[in-house]
Amino acid sequence: MVENAPEVERYFAERHIRLKKDWLLEALHFVSAEKSQNRLVDLVYQQWLFADIKTSTEPIDGLRQLFDGRSLYDPYVFQIHSISDIGTSNLKQYKRLTDPSYEEPIEFDQPNPKPAGGKKCQTSQYQHVLEAKF
């Protein structure tokens, strides 16, 4: 599997992603049953999508200095652990994510706070962000 590492590294480098060597070797070992080179890259990519970016990807050098209140225009890879729409209640956001048939109630109810549950939702989405300000 080590012989496939340069091909996979090249694929990720074209997308401005520097993989950690130990993570790449583990991912290649995990998907080693696959024979096709193109399929192998896809399988490693799928592993990377759901991996913690801290363990799978080399950090971008000097990224904090790049932020400094400016817009970023070059391609960067970020892993966002949570986003909250401040214009929508957390309950409504949760319902929309967990129940596709959820319809918002028309009438307004009095607030009735409930303790937080233990359910955790995970999702992954890959898309280009044209401009980001931090």
Number of helical regions:
6
Largest sheet: none
Shape: extended
- The helical percent reads 25-40%
Mean pLDDT over the full residue set: 74
Number of E-type strands: 0
Order of helices and strands: HHHHHH
What is the end-to-end distance?
Answer: 40 Å
GO cellular component, one term: nuclear body
Organism: Globodera rostochiensis
Region (Disordered): 102-122
Pfam families: RMI1_N_N
What does this structure look like?
- The protein is an all-alpha fold.
- The protein has a domain of 55 residues.
- Helix content is 38%, strand content 0%.
- The protein contains 6 helices and no strands.
- The radius of gyration is 20 Å and the shape is extended.
- The two termini are 40 Å apart.
- This is RecQ mediated genome instability protein 1-like N-terminal helical domain-containing protein.
- It holds the Pfam family RMI1_N_N.
- One of its GO terms (biological process) is double-strand break repair via homologous recombination.
